[in-house]
Amino acid sequence: MKEELLAIQTKFAAEIDAAGGLASLEDIRVAAFGKKGEMTAILRGMGALPAEERPVIGQMANEVRAGLEEKLAEKKLMLSKAAMDEEMARQGLDVTLPGVKRAMGHRHPVAIVTEELCKIFMGMGYEIAEGPDVETDYHNFEALNIYSGHPARDEQDTFYVEGGRVLRTHTSPVQIRYMENNRPPIAIVAPGKVFRADELDATHSPVFHQLEGLLVDKGIHMGHLKGALTVFAKALFGEDVKTRFRPHHFAFTEPSAEVDFSCFSCGGKGCRICKGEGWIEMAGCGMVHPKVLARCGIDPEVYSGFAFGMGIDRIAMQRYGIPHLRLLFENDMKFLQQF
Ligand code: DAH
């Protein structure tokens, strides 16, 4: 009996060690401890032993049983873990990994500032108008009194495209398109991209942004223009900002002016940003030329209007302390994610 027990122990121990999967391990368990198992048979045969042998053999049988059961349990744990690892590897899924973060979009600083400027004018009753980036020569130049031979038409400044069209060099053609299709009273601002054959540097780019303004009604004069731009300046940079109008020349306005705002950095004392001037040039403006009104079918004897055009990019750079214009057009995610 003793030898038989030892033989069974050695045999099953070796089989358990060799078991390659949970199914074969279960077969071994049944062969040992199942209803017809070899250990079961031995344990059942205890009763038939002579009384004096029973305690010794009985204890030995219990030890063998406990040893094999423990070995089975250990092996089962090991095989289950291996099976789980294999399943995980097959699915390529590790539920303990942190989730994938979705990248959030950010608004471009130029878009933020454009909206801010438009909101100020909308608060004064202006509507938003738009025009195409690819313009006819007529809308971009001719209708604005910029005739052939005018320096603004220089090929060095203008991108000409097929069919005699141009990439608009300013947002002023939106004035023309709007007046062709609407009658006074007119009060619009038109933000958008404009294009000029400039080399990229800290303050120039072949593409940049302008905001155009146009107001036409009966009895409009220079005082209205000054009032509108002064209210705008204060809304944008604060109550203390002053405006200054200097005579200038534009083909499509008469009289024309350039408007300066007192420096938003030093308040007018003079600093590096305003180059010691105390003033920063903000926009071109003037009274809409009578010929421009007439060309759009608006009687200049009855109506008059003012217009202005300003750069948006420089305001965005000032607002956010952006040192180089290039940063507004490179679309570097590391830069844009700050806004
Ligand atoms: N279009 C001009 C430019 O890009 C700016 C400008 C000047 C617009 C005077 C106007 C204006 O509407 O009245 O240089």
Overview of the structural elements:
The chain has 339 residues and is α+β, with helices and mostly antiparallel strands. It folds into 2 domains: 2-91; 109-336, 2-Layer Sandwich (BirA Bifunctional Protein, domain 2), CATH 3.30.930.10. Helices cover 40% and strands 19% of the residues. It is built from 11 helices and 9 strands. The protein has helices spanning 2-18, 22-33, 38-45, 54-91, 109-123, 137-140, 173-181, 222-237, 290-295, 313-320, 333-336, and strands at residues 127-128, 134-135, 166-167, 186-195, 207-217, 243-250, 253-262, 279-288, 304-311. Strands 1-4-5-9-8-7-6 form a 7-stranded mixed beta sheet, with helices on both faces. A two-stranded antiparallel sheet has the order 2-3. A hairpin with a 2-residue loop joins β6 (243-250) and β7 (253-262). The radius of gyration is 43 Å and the shape is rod-shaped. It starts with a helix and ends with a helix. The mean pLDDT is 93. The protein binds 3,4-dihydroxyphenylalanine (DAH).
